[in-house]
Amino acid sequence: xxxxxxxxxxxxxxxxxxxxxxxxxxSVRDIVNDPKYSQVVVFVDSNTEKxxxxxxxxxxxxxxxxxxxxxxxEHKTLDTCAYVYEQMxxxxxxxxxxxxxxxxxxxxxxxxxxxATYMRGxxxxxxxxxxxxxxxxxxxxxxxxxxxxLKNVVGVFQEPEKVFxxxxxxxxxxQVQVRNGFAExxxxxxxxDQKSFYEAGKEVFSYDKNPEKWVASSIRTKLDIxxxxxxxxxxxxxLNFGHTIGHAIETSGLIKGIxxxxxxxxxxxxxxxxxxxxxxxxxxxxxxxxxxxxxxSVFGHNPKWVSEPEQLVDLMHKDKKNRNGxxxxxxxxxxxxxxxxxxVPEEIIYESLYFYKQKW
Length: 360
Ligand SMILES: NC(=O)c1ccc[n+]([C@@H]2O[C@H](COP(=O)([O-])OP(=O)(O)OC[C@H]3O[C@@H](n4cnc5c(N)ncnc54)[C@H](O)[C@@H]3O)[C@@H](O)[C@H]2O)c1
Known about the structure:
Blueprint: H1 14-19, E1 20-22, H2 25-33, E2 40-45, H3 46-51, H4 53-58, E3 65-69, H5 78-90, E4 98-103, H6 105-117, E5 124-128, H7 131-137, E6 142-147, E7 150-157, E8 163-165, H8 175-192, H9 194-202, H10 215-228, H11 243-256, H12 262-279, H13 285-299, H14 309-316, E9 328-332, E10 338-343, H15 346-357
Parallel strand pairs: 1-8, 2-3, 2-4, 4-5
Antiparallel strand pairs: 6-7, 9-10
Helix pairs in contact: 5-6, 7-8, 7-10, 8-9, 8-10, 8-12, 8-13, 11-12, 11-14, 12-13, 12-15
The structure holds nicotinamide-adenine-dinucleotide.
């Protein structure tokens, strides 16, 4: 069944827009100092504790409690949640407390989930510190953790009170992490912003100079979509472009103990799913070629990640988007326009993995 809808770029919901605040420590201070919050509990991981927390303290004058979790996707688990809840109880965090999340998507998803569930939910604000979390994870209210290696299989929808975006956090981010976040920028171009994709393709492209230049427009794209469909009943599914195959690759890496970054996996997923779009007569061969060339120019070619197609297809069967055991995809109907709920014959899924695997 084809359910397709153009991405509407109409006027944004004002309230949603006001949730994202750029470069404004004054507003962070105001919310942290708000006396309606009995306590402020700050969540970091072991890296953002070292690299980002002092910047926060520089601008804040209220006593806060800090909870630090080990960095890395392998710690985005219910075990880490249990540790966080324990710490929250030990620090007497009550229902009137405010959570402050300082970190990338891992801290955002995990600590956000803990805030949304602790004592049936405490409010929280987010200060995303990676490119990926700024352009993607901090917007849209999805929170959760991985279970048995299955990505984000337990979670809730809850919006933060505010999101504060500061470019300066990106200064300490390793280049590989900048590139990781850039995958979601490319995805936003492919599903909703054809002009930016072709403009980037025209120049000798460098994603790592001034990464912050992609942030605002990417946030706008995600906000446009998630504001219209906050609970992913329809349109929002287009954000999953590249993620059906990408998540399977990421999960297979977790299972094998080979860490594959989310963005790296999504980059492969976008090449395969563009191929599927081409095979389903939604994309031209030229468009498919342009997408593959551009993504490979940024991420290189990693055929070993798709070396076990059966395992990947098996993992895709566990995807949350499936219905009646059928794997469903969000695909491209031309660059800059996405469609969702496409059931794809399994042989074409395999073909797309072989397509990626071949030497170019
Ligand atoms: N909720 C959503 O809508 C959504 C969307 C996309 C991705 N995600 C999730 O986000 C996670 C990936 O996010 P991520 O790529 O930000 O990973 P991450 O949070 O694991 O951060 C990557 C690494 O960078 C470190 N780091 C963070 N900020 C830093 C800084 N300023 N300087 C130096 N190092 C820093 C972290 O400690 C970590 O080692 C995944 O779990 C994914 O499922 C969620």
